[in-house]
Amino acid sequence: MLEKMVFTTILFSVIGDKLRRLIHDYQKIVVLGMPSAGKTRFLCHLNGNEYVDQTTASDEFKYFSIDTPNGKIYVDDGRDIGGTEYYLSRYKEFMTDADMVFFVFNINDYISDTDYQRKVNARLDLINAFRCATQKCCIIGSHLDVYVKNGQNRSSATAFHDINSIVYEKDKEYYTKEFRELFKDNETFFVMDLTKKDSALKIIERLTKQ
Ligand SMILES: Nc1nc2c(ncn2[C@@H]2O[C@H](COP(=O)(O)OP(=O)(O)OP(=O)(O)O)[C@@H](O)[C@H]2O)c(=O)[nH]1
Ligand SMILES: [Mg+2]
């Protein structure tokens, strides 16, 4: 009896999932990035889950939808992946089949700490190597508020300038930043204070603009 109930539940859930995907075009998203950069906060703004301030291992999230001025976006079930280096070897696997790849890093640390900069650059190299032409890659620089607070006359414009001068700095003989391609398009590179509720929605709105 119990076996029959379990079987029926699984069957209905499989059929339900197939129907759901038939009715709407569900997008697969993956959110990668540095530890404590704001990946989970970003996701919680999007799916409405309550944000809990703790590091993520690899948590499943349920499908959800986002209302934007450009229409409703349907996001499929996915995973919120922690920023630990442990997952670097799985970036390729995580990116396979994703329609949108987000990469989040802390701009304040990127601009002020060369060790952090190197680590971010290494991950950007992976994203750039594994991405495919049909995917939208979106780079999010978080902690804009901290960057602004830590210096005089700082703004999102100066943050863009500071990051671009690092990304586009003259190639050293031993290292060419091929990932700079990811920063070329200002429509897919953002600097944000991810503690603000509307930050994630602003990003999705810009990404889905026709
Ligand atoms: N001031 C500020 N704090 C932020 C920003 N983005 C995230 N935080 C804070 O940074 C901490 C880590 O945020 P999470 O979203 O949990 O970071 P994560 O990238 O998911 O971290 P892991 O799961 O450990 O890899 C939390 O305290 C957030 O509130 C930002 O733009 N500005
Ligand atoms: Mg997290």
Give a structural overview.
The protein has one domain: Rossmann fold. It has 8 helices and 9 strands. It has helices at 2-23, 39-47, 91-95, 107-112, 114-130, 144-149, 156-167, 197-207, and strands spanning 26-27, 29-33, 58-61, 64-68, 71-75, 78-81, 100-106, 136-142, 189-191. The strands form 3 sheets. It has a 4-stranded parallel sheet, with helices on both faces. A hairpin with a 2-residue loop joins strand 4 (64-68) and strand 5 (71-75). Helix 2 (39-47) crosses helix 8 (197-207). The longest helix is centred in the first third of the chain and has 22 residues, at 2-23. 28% of the residues are buried. Bound molecules: guanosine-5'-triphosphate and magnesium ion (MG). Residues 39-40, 56, 80, 82 line the site of magnesium ion. Magnesium ion binds at residues 39-40, 56, 80, 82.
